Every structure is written in C-alpha cells, then in structure tokens.
Amino acid sequence: MAQAQKQLHPIPPLFDGDSRVLILGSFPSVKSREAMFFYGHPQNRFWQVIAALIGAPQPRTVEEKKELILSHHFALWDCIGSCTIVGSSDSSIRDVAANDIRIITNNAPIERIYCNGATSMKYFSRYIAPQSGFSARQLPSTSPANAAWSLDRLIEAWRVIL
C-alpha cells in the first residue's frame, strides 16, 4: 500500500495577460506530477471536454494543451500548493497549504473562477475564498473517479465556462 507523502505542487500556473476564466483543480495526480502538466492521467476527461467545447482537436502534447488554454483566454492551476497525500487519492489529502491565486488574479483580468470537482471547491472555499475575496462555481469533476458522469454530460455541464 502506498504511503502518505508530503508533496509540493510542481506545476506553475498557466495563464497570460488575456486570461479571463480560471479553472482550478485540487492537486495534481501522480501522472500529472510525472508529466509536469495539468490533467496528465490518460483517463482524465479534462482535455476531451475542453476540446469538445471549443470545437478543437484534442491536444496531445503539453505545447498543444498550453496553446489551447491560452488561445481561449483560460487559466489553469490548482487550489493546493502542498499537502500530504497517498498517491493521487483526494480523500487522503491532509496538511494542506493553499496556492495563492493572486499570482494570477493580479496579472490577468480574471472574470470567473470554476472548480473542477468537489475537492477543488472544498479547498477553494476553505482557504482561497477567505483570503482572496473571490467566489467560484463548482463543476463536475473530469476525473475518471467520477464515473457517474458521461463525457456528454460533462461537456454540457462545462459549457458555462465559455
């Protein structure tokens, strides 16, 4: 069985001066930490959802993913800057230190913030909203653990980010 380990978030926020919609996850999975980029697990449906919403081919490389996000005025990051976690298990997260989203909000005209799933919303509400004054809306998780939601249902629910 995997041991709980203290992990630092290894991926810098993705945004530019035109980013208007911030999408926050909870903490990168093992696969994402290995890939050094967001939503790196092949079963995570995030990239399928985003590509479908904007009518683009699904990006494969990190460069294609960055281009897709930035060219549509999105920003990506996670709520948690460091935590103790077992593997990729959200339910095992302890000892949370939040990311400071002002790195993004002070440098981009963010108009709306969305949390990818309940865990992201939980940590946003607990740590980020009180210090930032921002509010966010929870969207259904694109994680493979959220098997109750089909790809079509996810795409429909995520349409609000456009």
Short structural description:
With 162 residues, this protein is an alpha/beta fold.
CATH architecture: 3-Layer(aba) Sandwich
Weakly predicted, low-confidence segments: none
Largest sheet: 4 strands, parallel
Q: Given the structure, what is the number of helices?
A: 6
What name does the CATH topology carry? Uracil-DNA Glycosylase, subunit E
% residues in beta strands: 15-25%
Q: How many structural domains in the coordinates?
A: 1
Fraction of helical residues:
25-40%
Radius of gyration: 15 Å
Average predicted confidence as pLDDT: 96
Give the CATH superfamily: Uracil-DNA glycosylase-like domain
Order of helices and strands: EEHHHEEEHEHEH
Placed side by side, the strands forming the largest sheet appear as 3-2-6-7
Please give the number of β-strands: 7
**N→C terminal distance:** 41 Å
Taken from the alpha-carbon principal axes, the silhouette is globular
Q: Which CATH first-tier class would you pick?
A: Alpha Beta
Classify the secondary structure makeup into a structural class: alpha/beta
